[in-house]
Amino acid sequence: MNNKGILYAACRNDLYAFMQKSFYEIDGSQEFKGNWHLELICDKLQQCLNGKIKRLIINIPPRNLKSHIASITFPAYILGHSPSERIICASYAQPLANDLSRKTRQLMETGFYKQVFKTRLGDKNTENMFETTYNGYRFATSVDGSLTGFGGNWIILDDPIKADDAQSEVKRNNVNNWYDNTLISRLNDKVNGVIIVIMQRLHIDDLTGHLLKQDGWDLLSLPAIAEYDECFELSNGKTVGRKAGEALNPALEPLDILDNQRKLMSNYNFSAQYQQNPIPAKGNVINFDDFGFFDCCPARAEIFQSWDIALKDGKDNDYSVCITAKYKDNLFYVENVQRFKLDMFLLVNKIREMHQHFRCNHLIIEDSSISTHLLQYIQRELNLYPIKFKPQGDKVTRANNASLFISSGRVLLQRNATWLDDFKSEINSFPNGKHDDQVDALTQLIAVINDGQYNCNLESLANALQKASQKSEKQIFFEKALKIHNYNKYRMYEF
Fold it and tell me: Would you state the CATH architecture of domain 288-450?
Protein backbone atom coordinates (compact mmCIF):
# COMPACT_ATOMS: atom_id res chain seq x y z
CA MET A 1 0.00 0.00 0.00
CA ASN A 2 1.42 3.43 -0.96
CA ASN A 3 1.48 6.48 1.32
CA LYS A 4 -1.85 7.78 0.05
CA GLY A 5 -3.43 4.40 0.61
CA ILE A 6 -2.18 4.37 4.19
CA LEU A 7 -3.48 7.91 4.72
CA TYR A 8 -6.91 7.07 3.31
CA ALA A 9 -7.14 3.90 5.40
CA ALA A 10 -6.26 5.87 8.53
CA CYS A 11 -8.88 8.51 7.72
CA ARG A 12 -11.51 5.85 7.08
CA ASN A 13 -11.02 4.25 10.49
CA ASP A 14 -9.89 7.15 12.67
CA LEU A 15 -12.11 10.21 13.07
CA TYR A 16 -9.23 12.30 14.43
CA ALA A 17 -7.12 11.58 11.34
CA PHE A 18 -10.11 12.27 9.07
CA MET A 19 -10.80 15.53 10.92
CA GLN A 20 -7.21 16.75 10.49
CA LYS A 21 -7.15 16.08 6.75
CA SER A 22 -10.63 17.56 6.34
CA PHE A 23 -9.45 20.77 7.97
CA TYR A 24 -7.08 21.46 5.08
CA GLU A 25 -9.68 20.39 2.53
CA ILE A 26 -12.14 22.97 3.87
CA ASP A 27 -9.81 25.80 4.92
CA GLY A 28 -6.21 25.87 3.78
CA SER A 29 -5.67 29.41 5.09
CA GLN A 30 -4.82 28.32 8.63
CA GLU A 31 -2.49 25.86 10.24
CA PHE A 32 -4.12 22.95 12.02
CA LYS A 33 -3.07 22.96 15.67
CA GLY A 34 -3.59 19.44 16.92
CA ASN A 35 -4.13 18.82 20.60
CA TRP A 36 -5.16 16.09 23.02
CA HIS A 37 -8.61 17.57 23.59
CA LEU A 38 -9.43 17.19 19.90
CA GLU A 39 -8.49 13.52 20.12
CA LEU A 40 -10.75 13.22 23.15
CA ILE A 41 -13.72 14.83 21.40
CA CYS A 42 -13.24 12.60 18.35
CA ASP A 43 -13.06 9.56 20.62
CA LYS A 44 -16.39 10.51 22.24
CA LEU A 45 -18.00 10.98 18.82
CA GLN A 46 -16.59 7.66 17.64
CA GLN A 47 -18.23 6.01 20.66
CA CYS A 48 -21.52 7.53 19.52
CA LEU A 49 -20.98 6.00 16.07
CA ASN A 50 -20.21 2.64 17.68
CA GLY A 51 -23.44 2.76 19.71
CA LYS A 52 -21.74 3.11 23.10
CA ILE A 53 -23.01 6.65 23.78
CA LYS A 54 -26.55 7.74 22.89
CA ARG A 55 -26.70 11.16 24.59
CA LEU A 56 -23.60 13.35 24.58
CA ILE A 57 -22.98 16.92 25.74
CA ILE A 58 -19.66 18.61 24.99
CA ASN A 59 -18.96 21.97 26.65
CA ILE A 60 -15.94 23.75 25.23
CA PRO A 61 -14.68 27.36 24.92
CA PRO A 62 -15.16 29.26 21.63
CA ARG A 63 -12.68 28.97 18.74
CA ASN A 64 -11.64 25.39 19.52
CA LEU A 65 -12.86 23.73 16.28
CA LYS A 66 -16.09 22.45 17.80
CA SER A 67 -18.15 23.24 14.68
CA HIS A 68 -15.50 21.83 12.36
CA ILE A 69 -15.53 18.56 14.28
CA ALA A 70 -19.19 18.13 15.20
CA SER A 71 -21.13 19.89 12.44
CA ILE A 72 -18.87 19.61 9.37
CA THR A 73 -16.55 16.63 9.70
CA PHE A 74 -18.61 14.23 11.78
CA PRO A 75 -21.77 14.23 9.59
CA ALA A 76 -19.57 13.49 6.56
CA TYR A 77 -17.87 10.71 8.53
CA ILE A 78 -21.23 9.22 9.58
CA LEU A 79 -22.52 9.23 6.00
CA GLY A 80 -19.23 7.80 4.79
CA HIS A 81 -19.68 4.75 6.99
CA SER A 82 -23.45 4.53 6.62
CA PRO A 83 -24.80 6.48 3.61
CA SER A 84 -28.44 5.81 4.50
CA GLU A 85 -28.25 7.63 7.85
CA ARG A 86 -30.44 10.69 8.33
CA ILE A 87 -28.91 13.55 10.27
CA ILE A 88 -30.56 16.70 11.61
CA CYS A 89 -28.11 19.50 12.45
CA ALA A 90 -29.36 22.59 14.26
CA SER A 91 -27.79 25.90 15.31
CA TYR A 92 -29.18 29.12 16.74
CA ALA A 93 -29.56 30.80 13.34
CA GLN A 94 -30.48 29.46 9.88
CA PRO A 95 -27.62 31.26 8.03
CA LEU A 96 -25.10 29.60 10.36
CA ALA A 97 -26.79 26.21 9.96
CA ASN A 98 -26.77 26.61 6.16
CA ASP A 99 -23.08 27.56 6.12
CA LEU A 100 -22.12 24.47 8.11
CA SER A 101 -24.21 22.33 5.78
CA ARG A 102 -22.48 23.82 2.75
CA LYS A 103 -19.07 22.99 4.19
CA THR A 104 -20.04 19.38 4.87
CA ARG A 105 -21.28 19.09 1.28
CA GLN A 106 -18.08 20.73 0.03
CA LEU A 107 -16.01 18.19 1.96
CA MET A 108 -18.00 15.25 0.58
CA GLU A 109 -17.43 16.48 -2.97
CA THR A 110 -13.63 16.55 -2.68
CA GLY A 111 -11.41 13.98 -4.32
CA PHE A 112 -9.99 13.16 -0.91
CA TYR A 113 -13.41 12.17 0.49
CA LYS A 114 -14.24 10.10 -2.59
CA GLN A 115 -10.98 8.19 -2.14
CA VAL A 116 -11.74 7.49 1.53
CA PHE A 117 -15.44 6.60 1.23
CA LYS A 118 -17.74 5.20 -1.45
CA THR A 119 -20.65 7.41 -0.39
CA ARG A 120 -21.86 9.78 -3.13
CA LEU A 121 -24.28 12.69 -3.10
CA GLY A 122 -27.63 12.37 -4.83
CA ASP A 123 -29.50 14.85 -7.01
CA LYS A 124 -31.31 16.71 -4.23
CA ASN A 125 -29.04 19.51 -3.15
CA THR A 126 -30.48 22.65 -1.52
CA GLU A 127 -29.08 25.32 0.76
CA ASN A 128 -30.09 23.52 3.94
CA MET A 129 -30.25 19.88 2.79
CA PHE A 130 -28.46 17.33 0.66
CA GLU A 131 -29.06 13.62 0.09
CA THR A 132 -26.88 10.62 -0.66
CA THR A 133 -27.62 8.08 -3.36
CA TYR A 134 -28.79 5.77 -0.54
CA ASN A 135 -31.48 8.25 0.61
CA GLY A 136 -29.53 9.38 3.61
CA TYR A 137 -29.32 13.10 4.25
CA ARG A 138 -28.02 15.99 6.29
CA PHE A 139 -30.77 18.50 7.08
CA ALA A 140 -29.88 21.90 8.54
CA THR A 141 -32.29 23.94 10.61
CA SER A 142 -32.31 26.68 13.21
CA VAL A 143 -33.70 26.57 16.71
CA ASP A 144 -37.43 27.29 16.34
CA GLY A 145 -37.11 26.35 12.66
CA SER A 146 -39.54 24.05 10.89
CA LEU A 147 -38.95 20.29 11.05
CA THR A 148 -42.23 19.19 9.54
CA GLY A 149 -41.75 16.00 7.56
CA PHE A 150 -38.17 15.45 8.69
CA GLY A 151 -36.79 12.89 11.11
CA GLY A 152 -33.38 11.50 11.84
CA ASN A 153 -31.38 8.86 13.65
CA TRP A 154 -28.88 11.58 14.53
CA ILE A 155 -29.53 15.02 16.02
CA ILE A 156 -26.56 17.37 16.39
CA LEU A 157 -27.08 20.73 18.12
CA ASP A 158 -24.18 23.11 17.67
CA ASP A 159 -24.52 26.39 19.62
CA PRO A 160 -28.29 26.21 20.18
CA ILE A 161 -28.42 29.72 21.66
CA LYS A 162 -26.61 32.93 20.78
CA ALA A 163 -24.36 34.36 23.51
CA ASP A 164 -26.19 37.71 23.47
CA ASP A 165 -29.54 35.95 23.95
CA ALA A 166 -28.53 33.73 26.85
CA GLN A 167 -29.34 36.34 29.49
CA SER A 168 -32.94 36.49 28.33
CA GLU A 169 -35.11 34.07 30.28
CA VAL A 170 -37.68 34.14 27.48
CA LYS A 171 -35.13 33.16 24.82
CA ARG A 172 -33.57 30.46 27.00
CA ASN A 173 -36.97 28.97 27.66
CA ASN A 174 -37.77 29.08 23.93
CA VAL A 175 -34.68 26.97 23.18
CA ASN A 176 -35.34 24.50 25.99
CA ASN A 177 -39.02 24.16 25.10
CA TRP A 178 -38.20 23.72 21.40
CA TYR A 179 -35.88 20.87 22.31
CA ASP A 180 -38.46 19.22 24.60
CA ASN A 181 -41.55 19.72 22.47
CA THR A 182 -40.29 19.71 18.88
CA LEU A 183 -36.77 18.46 18.30
CA ILE A 184 -36.80 15.33 20.44
CA SER A 185 -39.95 14.13 18.64
CA ARG A 186 -38.02 14.08 15.32
CA LEU A 187 -35.75 11.26 16.50
CA ASN A 188 -36.76 8.24 14.42
CA ASP A 189 -35.49 5.63 16.87
CA LYS A 190 -35.91 6.77 20.49
CA VAL A 191 -33.87 3.81 21.75
CA ASN A 192 -30.89 3.75 19.39
CA GLY A 193 -30.98 7.29 18.01
CA VAL A 194 -28.15 9.62 19.04
CA ILE A 195 -28.34 13.22 20.25
CA ILE A 196 -25.20 15.35 20.51
CA VAL A 197 -25.11 18.85 22.00
CA ILE A 198 -21.91 20.85 21.63
CA MET A 199 -21.76 24.38 23.00
CA GLN A 200 -20.06 26.83 25.30
CA ARG A 201 -21.85 27.38 28.60
CA LEU A 202 -23.69 30.68 28.70
CA HIS A 203 -26.06 30.50 31.66
CA ILE A 204 -26.86 28.14 34.48
CA ASP A 205 -30.24 27.48 32.84
CA ASP A 206 -29.02 27.16 29.23
CA LEU A 207 -29.73 23.98 27.27
CA THR A 208 -26.86 22.11 28.92
CA GLY A 209 -28.16 23.03 32.36
CA HIS A 210 -31.66 22.01 31.28
CA LEU A 211 -30.56 18.63 29.92
CA LEU A 212 -28.34 17.75 32.88
CA LYS A 213 -31.45 17.69 35.04
CA GLN A 214 -32.40 14.59 33.02
CA ASP A 215 -30.82 11.16 33.26
CA GLY A 216 -28.68 9.43 30.66
CA TRP A 217 -26.39 12.22 29.46
CA ASP A 218 -22.64 11.75 29.02
CA LEU A 219 -20.95 15.12 29.75
CA LEU A 220 -17.53 16.19 28.52
CA SER A 221 -16.68 19.60 29.99
CA LEU A 222 -13.41 21.22 28.90
CA PRO A 223 -12.60 24.54 30.63
CA ALA A 224 -10.06 26.86 29.02
CA ILE A 225 -7.92 26.63 32.17
CA ALA A 226 -7.98 23.37 34.12
CA GLU A 227 -9.27 23.79 37.66
CA TYR A 228 -7.93 20.39 38.69
CA ASP A 229 -5.81 17.62 37.19
CA GLU A 230 -7.61 16.00 34.24
CA CYS A 231 -6.96 12.49 32.97
CA PHE A 232 -8.99 10.68 30.28
CA GLU A 233 -8.53 7.22 28.80
CA LEU A 234 -9.38 6.93 25.11
CA SER A 235 -10.98 3.85 23.59
CA ASN A 236 -7.59 2.69 22.29
CA GLY A 237 -6.12 2.78 25.80
CA LYS A 238 -4.20 6.00 25.30
CA THR A 239 -4.28 8.43 28.25
CA VAL A 240 -4.62 12.18 27.66
CA GLY A 241 -5.13 15.16 29.95
CA ARG A 242 -3.41 18.05 31.71
CA LYS A 243 -2.49 19.45 35.11
CA ALA A 244 -4.48 21.98 37.10
CA GLY A 245 -3.78 25.51 35.89
CA GLU A 246 -2.83 24.48 32.34
CA ALA A 247 -4.50 25.91 29.24
CA LEU A 248 -6.72 23.68 27.10
CA ASN A 249 -4.77 24.31 23.89
CA PRO A 250 -1.59 26.31 24.67
CA ALA A 251 -0.58 26.49 21.00
CA LEU A 252 -3.85 28.23 20.18
CA GLU A 253 -4.58 30.15 23.39
CA PRO A 254 -1.73 30.20 25.94
CA LEU A 255 -2.33 31.27 29.52
CA ASP A 256 -1.30 34.90 28.97
CA ILE A 257 -3.86 35.24 26.18
CA LEU A 258 -6.54 33.67 28.38
CA ASP A 259 -5.62 35.93 31.29
CA ASN A 260 -5.99 38.94 29.04
CA GLN A 261 -9.33 37.62 27.79
CA ARG A 262 -10.48 37.31 31.38
CA LYS A 263 -9.67 41.00 31.92
CA LEU A 264 -11.61 42.00 28.81
CA MET A 265 -14.73 40.08 29.86
CA SER A 266 -16.73 40.10 33.06
CA ASN A 267 -15.90 37.28 35.43
CA TYR A 268 -19.47 36.07 34.94
CA ASN A 269 -19.02 35.63 31.17
CA PHE A 270 -15.48 34.24 31.36
CA SER A 271 -16.53 31.69 33.97
CA ALA A 272 -19.37 30.51 31.74
CA GLN A 273 -17.98 30.71 28.20
CA TYR A 274 -14.36 29.81 28.92
CA GLN A 275 -14.49 27.81 32.15
CA GLN A 276 -17.84 26.08 31.42
CA ASN A 277 -18.98 27.07 34.90
CA PRO A 278 -21.88 29.51 34.67
CA ILE A 279 -22.57 31.55 37.76
CA PRO A 280 -26.15 32.33 38.77
CA ALA A 281 -27.18 35.93 38.11
CA LYS A 282 -28.48 36.02 41.68
CA GLY A 283 -27.22 34.04 44.63
CA ASN A 284 -29.14 31.05 45.91
CA VAL A 285 -28.58 32.20 49.51
CA ILE A 286 -27.21 35.75 49.51
CA ASN A 287 -28.56 38.20 46.95
CA PHE A 288 -25.71 40.38 45.69
CA ASP A 289 -28.21 43.13 44.87
CA ASP A 290 -28.79 43.57 48.61
CA PHE A 291 -25.30 45.03 49.10
CA GLY A 292 -24.88 48.79 49.03
CA PHE A 293 -21.84 50.67 47.76
CA PHE A 294 -19.65 53.48 49.02
CA ASP A 295 -16.87 55.69 47.64
CA CYS A 296 -15.16 56.87 50.83
CA CYS A 297 -14.81 55.11 54.16
CA PRO A 298 -15.86 57.03 57.30
CA ALA A 299 -13.23 58.35 59.70
CA ARG A 300 -12.83 57.14 63.31
CA ALA A 301 -14.44 53.77 62.70
CA GLU A 302 -13.67 50.40 64.24
CA ILE A 303 -11.60 48.28 61.84
CA PHE A 304 -12.27 44.56 61.59
CA GLN A 305 -10.40 41.83 59.77
CA SER A 306 -12.09 38.48 59.29
CA TRP A 307 -9.88 35.58 58.18
CA ASP A 308 -11.03 32.30 56.72
CA ILE A 309 -7.86 30.26 56.76
CA ALA A 310 -6.47 27.34 54.75
CA LEU A 311 -3.10 25.95 55.75
CA LYS A 312 -2.06 24.42 52.42
CA ASP A 313 -0.86 26.23 49.33
CA GLY A 314 -1.52 23.68 46.53
CA LYS A 315 -3.37 24.66 43.36
CA ASP A 316 -6.39 22.55 44.28
CA ASN A 317 -6.61 23.77 47.87
CA ASP A 318 -8.90 26.45 49.25
CA TYR A 319 -7.87 30.06 49.63
CA SER A 320 -7.14 31.90 52.83
CA VAL A 321 -9.28 35.03 52.71
CA CYS A 322 -8.99 38.31 54.60
CA ILE A 323 -11.92 40.72 54.59
CA THR A 324 -11.18 44.17 56.00
CA ALA A 325 -14.17 46.29 56.98
CA LYS A 326 -14.88 49.45 58.96
CA TYR A 327 -17.84 49.52 61.32
CA LYS A 328 -19.55 52.76 62.27
CA ASP A 329 -23.12 53.82 63.01
CA ASN A 330 -24.34 50.26 62.58
CA LEU A 331 -22.97 50.06 59.02
CA PHE A 332 -20.23 47.81 57.62
CA TYR A 333 -17.93 49.29 54.99
CA VAL A 334 -16.07 46.41 53.26
CA GLU A 335 -13.00 48.14 51.86
CA ASN A 336 -10.72 45.23 51.01
CA VAL A 337 -10.98 41.52 50.18
CA GLN A 338 -7.83 39.51 49.47
CA ARG A 339 -7.22 35.82 48.80
CA PHE A 340 -3.99 33.88 49.35
CA LYS A 341 -2.63 30.37 48.99
CA LEU A 342 0.11 30.19 51.62
CA ASP A 343 1.57 27.65 54.02
CA MET A 344 1.25 28.28 57.75
CA PHE A 345 4.38 30.37 58.29
CA LEU A 346 3.84 32.59 55.27
CA LEU A 347 0.21 32.96 56.32
CA VAL A 348 1.24 34.17 59.78
CA ASN A 349 3.44 36.82 58.18
CA LYS A 350 0.56 37.85 55.92
CA ILE A 351 -1.79 38.16 58.91
CA ARG A 352 0.72 40.45 60.66
CA GLU A 353 1.24 42.47 57.47
CA MET A 354 -2.50 42.95 56.85
CA HIS A 355 -3.13 43.74 60.52
CA GLN A 356 -0.50 46.49 60.54
CA HIS A 357 -1.32 47.89 57.10
CA PHE A 358 -5.00 48.46 57.88
CA ARG A 359 -4.44 49.27 61.59
CA CYS A 360 -6.89 46.59 62.54
CA ASN A 361 -8.68 46.83 65.91
CA HIS A 362 -10.48 43.50 65.82
CA LEU A 363 -8.93 40.38 64.30
CA ILE A 364 -11.32 37.44 63.78
CA ILE A 365 -10.18 33.88 63.09
CA GLU A 366 -12.29 30.75 63.28
CA ASP A 367 -11.46 28.52 66.25
CA SER A 368 -11.25 25.06 64.69
CA SER A 369 -9.07 21.98 64.77
CA ILE A 370 -6.91 23.26 61.90
CA SER A 371 -6.45 26.73 63.43
CA THR A 372 -5.53 25.79 67.01
CA HIS A 373 -1.76 25.92 66.50
CA LEU A 374 -2.03 28.98 64.29
CA LEU A 375 -3.95 30.90 66.97
CA GLN A 376 -1.42 29.90 69.64
CA TYR A 377 1.45 30.97 67.41
CA ILE A 378 -0.17 34.34 66.61
CA GLN A 379 -0.69 35.08 70.31
CA ARG A 380 2.80 33.99 71.32
CA GLU A 381 4.88 35.36 68.44
CA LEU A 382 2.84 38.32 67.12
CA ASN A 383 1.39 39.40 70.46
CA LEU A 384 -2.06 39.55 68.84
CA TYR A 385 -5.19 38.16 70.45
CA PRO A 386 -7.77 37.32 67.80
CA ILE A 387 -11.45 36.80 68.35
CA LYS A 388 -11.74 33.00 68.33
CA PHE A 389 -14.94 32.56 66.39
CA LYS A 390 -16.83 29.31 66.95
CA PRO A 391 -19.32 28.85 64.10
CA GLN A 392 -22.85 27.71 64.83
CA GLY A 393 -24.64 25.56 62.25
CA ASP A 394 -23.50 24.64 58.75
CA LYS A 395 -22.25 27.03 56.06
CA VAL A 396 -25.65 27.47 54.41
CA THR A 397 -27.36 28.22 57.73
CA ARG A 398 -24.72 30.84 58.57
CA ALA A 399 -25.07 32.38 55.12
CA ASN A 400 -28.85 32.50 55.49
CA ASN A 401 -28.46 34.33 58.79
CA ALA A 402 -25.98 36.75 57.22
CA SER A 403 -28.34 37.37 54.29
CA LEU A 404 -30.90 38.89 56.66
CA PHE A 405 -28.27 41.31 57.94
CA ILE A 406 -27.16 42.16 54.39
CA SER A 407 -30.72 42.63 53.12
CA SER A 408 -31.23 45.31 55.78
CA GLY A 409 -28.80 47.52 53.83
CA ARG A 410 -26.10 47.50 56.51
CA VAL A 411 -23.25 46.02 54.42
CA LEU A 412 -21.61 48.33 51.87
CA LEU A 413 -18.90 47.39 49.35
CA GLN A 414 -16.11 49.55 47.96
CA ARG A 415 -17.33 50.74 44.59
CA ASN A 416 -15.20 49.68 41.57
CA ALA A 417 -12.81 47.64 43.75
CA THR A 418 -10.51 45.26 41.87
CA TRP A 419 -11.72 42.35 44.03
CA LEU A 420 -15.43 43.05 43.45
CA ASP A 421 -15.92 40.78 40.42
CA ASP A 422 -14.50 37.67 42.07
CA PHE A 423 -16.40 38.46 45.25
CA LYS A 424 -19.70 38.73 43.36
CA SER A 425 -19.04 35.48 41.51
CA GLU A 426 -18.49 33.56 44.72
CA ILE A 427 -21.52 35.12 46.43
CA ASN A 428 -23.77 34.21 43.52
CA SER A 429 -22.41 30.68 43.03
CA PHE A 430 -22.64 29.77 46.74
CA PRO A 431 -23.23 27.02 47.86
CA ASN A 432 -22.55 25.29 44.52
CA GLY A 433 -19.32 27.08 43.56
CA LYS A 434 -15.83 25.66 43.65
CA HIS A 435 -14.80 28.02 46.46
CA ASP A 436 -16.71 29.51 49.39
CA ASP A 437 -13.89 31.09 51.40
CA GLN A 438 -14.98 34.70 50.84
CA VAL A 439 -18.52 33.79 51.88
CA ASP A 440 -17.20 32.13 55.05
CA ALA A 441 -15.08 35.16 55.96
CA LEU A 442 -18.05 37.47 55.38
CA THR A 443 -20.58 35.43 57.37
CA GLN A 444 -18.05 35.10 60.19
CA LEU A 445 -17.59 38.87 60.27
CA ILE A 446 -21.33 39.51 60.36
CA ALA A 447 -21.91 36.87 63.05
CA VAL A 448 -19.36 38.48 65.37
CA ILE A 449 -20.93 41.92 64.95
CA ASN A 450 -24.46 40.58 65.12
CA ASP A 451 -24.04 39.02 68.56
CA GLY A 452 -24.23 42.47 70.19
CA GLN A 453 -20.79 42.50 71.79
CA TYR A 454 -19.84 45.80 70.19
CA ASN A 455 -22.65 48.01 71.39
CA CYS A 456 -20.69 49.30 74.39
CA ASN A 457 -18.75 52.56 74.24
CA LEU A 458 -15.04 51.80 74.12
CA GLU A 459 -13.94 55.11 75.58
CA SER A 460 -16.36 54.74 78.48
CA LEU A 461 -14.90 51.33 79.18
CA ALA A 462 -11.36 52.72 79.09
CA ASN A 463 -12.26 55.50 81.53
CA ALA A 464 -13.94 53.07 83.90
CA LEU A 465 -10.97 50.77 83.71
CA GLN A 466 -8.60 53.57 84.73
CA LYS A 467 -10.77 54.51 87.73
CA ALA A 468 -11.06 50.95 88.99
CA SER A 469 -9.12 50.71 92.30
CA GLN A 470 -9.46 47.11 93.30
CA LYS A 471 -7.76 44.27 91.45
CA SER A 472 -11.06 42.42 91.24
CA GLU A 473 -12.65 45.46 89.60
CA LYS A 474 -9.77 45.70 87.14
CA GLN A 475 -10.20 42.03 86.38
CA ILE A 476 -13.88 42.59 85.59
CA PHE A 477 -13.20 45.51 83.30
CA PHE A 478 -10.27 43.75 81.68
CA GLU A 479 -12.49 40.77 80.89
CA LYS A 480 -14.98 43.17 79.32
CA ALA A 481 -12.18 44.57 77.20
CA LEU A 482 -11.34 41.06 76.09
CA LYS A 483 -14.98 40.41 75.25
CA ILE A 484 -15.13 43.36 72.90
CA HIS A 485 -11.88 42.07 71.38
CA ASN A 486 -9.87 45.26 71.59
CA TYR A 487 -7.23 43.61 73.73
CA ASN A 488 -4.22 45.52 72.40
CA LYS A 489 -5.85 48.86 73.16
CA TYR A 490 -6.00 47.93 76.85
CA ARG A 491 -2.68 46.17 77.30
CA MET A 492 -1.48 48.96 79.61
CA TYR A 493 -4.01 47.78 82.19
CA GLU A 494 -2.87 44.17 82.27
CA PHE A 495 -1.76 42.87 85.67
Answer: 2-Layer Sandwich (3.30)
